[in-house]
Design goal:
single chain; alpha/beta; Rossmann fold; 6-stranded mixed beta sheet; 4-stranded antiparallel beta sheet; about 35% helix
Length: about 230
Amino acid sequence: MLTVNAIDLHYGAAQALRRVSITAETGRITCVLGRNGVGKSSLLRAIVGHQPISGGAIHFNGEDISKLKPHERARRGIAYVPQGREIFPLLTVKENLETGYAPLQRIDRHIPPELFELFPILKSMLGRRGGDLSGGQQQQLAIARALVTRPKLLVLDEPTEGIQPSIIKDIGRAITFLRTKGTMAIVLVEQYFDFAKELTDTFAVLERGEVVLAGTKASMVEADVRKLMTV
């Protein structure tokens, strides 16, 4: 589904990523782990097109998408839930969800009922402004908005950040359900190791913009990964 092949990424003269490679497959979750500031969010921004790469290539469904704009990648089925959620605080929950219609054909412009099975609280809050929701509710809204686009690849940047434990469990169950549907690949950036370990099929740990450890869940040596995530 997704192949990130030896990409470099710069912010001006500063290099954020160095020959980073990861893959993501339909029905599986790839977790990107590491300390703050090692390039995890930069990698996701490169995948969704928010930051151009300076070397390497990104392929999605066999197509080189390295030079495509973010909206062109969205139309191909890539959905992004950014760190900090970035919902529209003055729009209602329903209007926030409807912003996901942008990459869809007219016939598909409706909110899938299963979203309210994943996140029941949203159904009772459709008329409330996004800014009036708690942080955990806003995170559920951000994920649901991405799912409105019917993605083939879901890219999540630290969905547990600042979220209360009960909602972390809800989000974990939702991500597990999405994997078992077998219709999308998922790339998850996470600093909460136990959450990531529970979900991951394959993982990659970044350090100073490079992949220093990678493999399957079965091959993971927990102590080595925790050491690379400890501040």
